[in-house]
Amino acid sequence: MNRRLSYGPDGAALLLRVFVSNSAVTEEFYRMKRLPPYVIAEVNAMRAAARARGQDIIDLGMGNPDLPPPPHVIEKLCEVAMKPDAHGYSASKGIPGVRKAQASYYARRFNVELDPETEVVMTMGSKEGLASLATAITAPGDVVLAPNPSYPIHTFGFIIAGATIRSVPTTPDERYWESLDRAMRYSVPRPSVVIVNYPSNPTAETVDLAFYERLVAWARENKVWVLSDLAYSELYFDGNPTRSILEVPGAKDVAVEFTSMSKTFSMAGWRVGFAVGNPQLIAALTRVKSYLDYGAFTPIQAAACAALNGPQDIVEANRLLYQKRRDVMVEAFGRAGWEIPSPRASMFAWAPLPPALREMGSLEFSKQLLVHAEVAVAPGVGYGEDGEGYVRIAMVENEQRLRQAARNIRRYLSSMGVNASAA
Length: 423
Fold this sequence. Notes:
This protein has helices at 11-21, 23-26, 30-33, 39-52, 71-81, 96-110, 125-137, 152-160, 174-186, 209-222, 279-292, 298-309, 313-336, 362-373, 399-415, and strands at 58-59, 120-123, 143-148, 164-169, 193-197, 225-229, 255-260, 273-277, 348-352, 375-376, 378-379, 390-394. By secondary structure, the protein is of the alpha/beta class.
């Protein structure tokens, strides 16, 4: 491109216009081109705009806990923050005390022994841990098996790292195993990683130990790494505790597991998570993290120790509270004309669209609920194409607000010609 540039008062602006007009410059960055528009962000933007106009939106879209952390955890944060030497760089892999606390949690909760030095690393939430491990172990073109629908980081963490995603069902039935075997036969190159997430976000499905036993055997036979996301380990209902893949003998040969304190202790904004398990994968994650961060603020790590080592009654209390919210929501929404399967775990319900409105699609249905019922939910298509026809409902409002949401939804459904007897 031959242009004579003038550097008068407007010369810089002219130079900028020339560069912006150059197609080589305006071409999107490689990784940006691999990321589709974030569908859920469209509903989030509508919700924010409605609230800015003064509307009282009942937000059941984002899984953001509305409960406070335990008082003793906040007290420990403040206590350590008052120390003059607590404000420097911390340890990227987590201070020794917090790694020992996480190992102790696994020992008492799952009867799994972990070496805090080689089998535990603290992460900035499970989301960052998954993304950093993807960066550590993925080469461009690697094939990764990820559930569909699934939480976006399970797929896009690896897409950003250059991998190719092959979807497998979320439902842990025989179709799941057939899909795994098909992937091994027909994918080139053969898959190197499989991701599992139970209790599932968004579908709230759970698995038993027999599922993990079969998965570990399959992974060992096929030389595949297993990444298990157990972020909702303590939000189980009806007395049916969740299980860890690491309970399976030999699982540490092939698996790492991610947990989070976001939901268990209502510490979502603190960004505290862990990866535990296979020493080779933990070492790779630790090494990548050492280049990327200095770890969480030391007082936060100390407070995480207090949460893991201290009284656990808050965990049971939160579990019972979410279970009561689940029961209220399922009953109230059902009476409003929208039948919702009762989730067995997590803080979400995976709700099929009312049959009469199914053709609308999950994104448009979510927009309609926001505009006409002032209730925000997350469109299922935002979690993968197999999420179409569903929405994710987060149980992050109190019982009174859930009943108000049901009344608003009832009015909207009635305006669309849907009533309780027809839903």
